[in-house]
Request: fold
Amino acid sequence: MLELSKNAFGRLVLGQAEVAPVRAFPVTNPQSGISLVDSNGKELAWIANLEDLEMRERKLVEEALQAREFLPEILRLSSVSRHAAPCEWRVETDKGKTAFKLDSEDDIRRISSSLVVTDSHGVSFLIRDPAALDRHSRRLLGSFL
Reply:
């Protein structure tokens, strides 16, 4: 059992140390392999699986992860300004519609069967299953793969 709590600032604390949860496999296995690291990046605890935690600790870790992570999922590509980078993508995500600049085709990384697209500001977007996108989106995406 971990001694997890929140401090007065709402940050996750393990014992006396402020910690941040970091997923080892955020796309392919988000419930397993979570490290609790201090402000220097030193691992203080390892969580093999979130389901192994008691409900209270699990909720604290999940809340801290949610506050720390921002990975909108692209559901549809509406348009791209040109079929080579650099270009602007207009997309619909699970967080709403947005547009971003793709600097290079190298900013599209394959992780297992998913893709992670990183924009010019370092914001990452997930395409969980490119084959499940609509035909128009697959055609636009295909020119970059």
In short: The chain has two helices and twelve strands. Residues 4-68 form one domain. The two ends are 45 Å apart (CA to CA). The first helix runs from residue 55 to 68.
